[in-house]
């Protein structure tokens, strides 16, 4: 019972870190887009768009994986 509690706490901690990293990447992408638009820098605009798309795909893939893991755990 204690191991399950520790494992759950560790998973929550890891998920919290991932969410904060995803949020940080999203904010930095927006900053890059705004800065690129302000300074007419196509490189910054392109970089911001690539980061936004990559972060969005990563978030969607992780949500799908978490859903499958939950379904698999329920089946046990």
What does this structure look like?
Helix 1 (about 1-40) runs antiparallel to helix 2 (about 40-75). This protein has about 80 residues and is mainly α. The protein is built from two helices and no strands. The protein has one domain (about 1-75). The chain is elongated, with a radius of gyration of 18 Å.
Count helical runs: 2
| Sheet with most strands | none
The count of β-strands is 0
Based on the structure, what is the oligomeric state of the protein chains? single chain
Kindly report how far apart the N and C termini lie.
17 Å
Mean pLDDT: 77
Query: Which range does the strand content fall in?
Result: under 5%
Please tell me what the overall shape is.
elongated
Structural class: mainly alpha
Q: Can you tell me the residue ranges where pLDDT is under 50 for at least 5 consecutive residues?
A: none
In total, the number of domains comes to 1
The radius of gyration is 18 Å
Q: List the secondary-structure elements in sequence, H or E.
A: HH
